[in-house]
Amino acid sequence: MSASAQGVEMPPVEELDRLEADQCAGALAPLFEGAPRLVARLVAARPFGSSEGLFAQAREIARWMPEDEQIELVDAHPRLGAPPGSVSAFSYREQGFDRDAADVAAEDERRQIGSELTRLTRCTRGASGSASASSWRGAPARTCCKSCARR
């Protein structure tokens, strides 16, 4: 089983448990935005045994470490709305800067809005096929489709 954060794969926990301290710290640092003293304490607390054990240990360490280290941990996390170039890969996705995903979602929304506008345009057209002034005031003269009849 491997630990992951925001879809980025980490080495399996069993491997983290066997790595040299500096290698393990390097692998864990992105999960904790590089908060060095938390990561150092976490590396010293190995073995984790499982990803659940790793994160349970991280929570326990964060809860009981000195206040200045807790502040360091909080400060290591990028501020909400921070410029995209100033955040880690994990935070980049977490804060919605993943352009590919955002572009797909925006295109889906544009298609849905376009379909709804097309439907509404058809519903507001009079018998002649052109939009009547009365239909634009909010109430079509007649019910033109099942969607309009429900309103």
Strand-helix topology:
Layout: E1 2-5, E2 8-12, H1 13-18, H2 21-28, H3 36-44, H4 51-64, H5 67-76, H6 89-94, H7 99-123, H8 133-136, H9 146-149
Antiparallel strand pairs: 1-2
Query: What distance separates the N and C termini?
Result: 52 Å
Q: What average pLDDT do the residues reach?
A: 76
CATH superfamily of the largest domain: Oxo-4-hydroxy-4-carboxy-5-ureidoimidazoline decarboxylase
Can you identify the CATH class of the largest domain? Mainly Alpha
CATH architecture of the largest domain: Orthogonal Bundle
Helix share of residues?
A: 55-70%
| Low-confidence residue ranges | 1-7
Main sheet summary: 2 strands, antiparallel
Tell me the strand order in the biggest sheet. 1-2
Coarse shape: elongated
N-to-C order of helices and strands: EEHHHHHHHHH
The proportion of strand residues reads 5-15%
Radius of gyration: 27 Å
Total number of helical segments? Answer: 9
Can you count the beta strands?
A: 2
CATH names the topology of the largest domain as UraD-like
- Based on secondary structure, the structural category is mainly alpha
